[in-house]
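Can't paste images in this forum, so I'm doing it all in text. The chain is below; anyone willing to post the predicted structure tokens underneath?
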Amino acid sequence: MRLIEFIKNLERVNALSKHEQLVLGIMDAINSGHLKVGSQLPSINVMVDEVGFARKTIVKAYEELKDKGLVESKKTKGYFVISNKTDVYLKIALIMYSFQRFQQEFYNALRKELEDKVQIDVFFHHNNDEVFETIFSNINGKYGMYIVAPIIGEKSKKILKTLSPEKLIVVDRFLDLGPDYTYITQEFKESTYAILEKLMPKIKKYKRLVLFYRDDMDYPTGTLESLKNFASHNQLTLNISKNYESNSLSKDVMYFVISDSDLWLLLKDCKDRDFRIGKDVGVLSFNDHIVKELISGGITTISTDFKQMAVTTAQNIRALSFSKRIISTDLIERESM
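Text version of the structure:
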């Protein structure tokens, strides 16, 4: 078999370990066109017989080729070439809720930090268990690293625990997979409550509070729990609605807005009715953006630094030294309260 010749040709390079010799030999065979996309690699047993290396050495080499995104394993059928991009040293699957602005920020920062030798394929589950399961049935075993913003629940936990801990980083929302798994996430309940307490002198100016919250979306439950507890402890009137309805604006109300689409409608009504933001009504938004700094005199926000989350994730991948970290949630005060 010519593949064996590619591998044996590297015996003269003394600096190479046996598993490196296997990896580079197979990559040479791909680069030369001898192995094409769809080609099947020899079985582990055949490779043991042909090259004389230990079984675990060959398995290690095949797994490294999988991490690079060059090879996939099919149950009971063996290993197959799935890519000829041998200049990529790691193939990453990034599974996110949807391509919202702050998640785009995360992707751009991750891409910049990891540079061009990494291939990042992005998938969106839209907080749908069936979509999440379908994504993983299609990609499991095809990537060297999985970066996942999980759905909170037992179904996604069961799926994610099929991945080995060294190949998974949980980001954005915390999901407890056990002590061996890495996470770089937000925390909603305690941090939101602490920020609300800090804002209490401004909040108490208003007669009631309104939160726009949808439990059929990916809104964090910790935010809802925090606001309920805060209102109860401070004897404040709290109303919860799914969405902001146009022309429903009232004076002396403090509005808590998670969705930017609700925010834009609310601000338009303020403008149309000549309500002074920060005086007639209060507005607190989640997830900061430069537009919120500029519009309507500046919107106060509660926000996590998604760029920092991405940088920390990239640092973990580069150093192969995985950690557990909660990225701080910060208050950015402007004129809207």
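The chain has three domains: 2-81, 90-185, 189-304. The longest strand covers residues 90-96.
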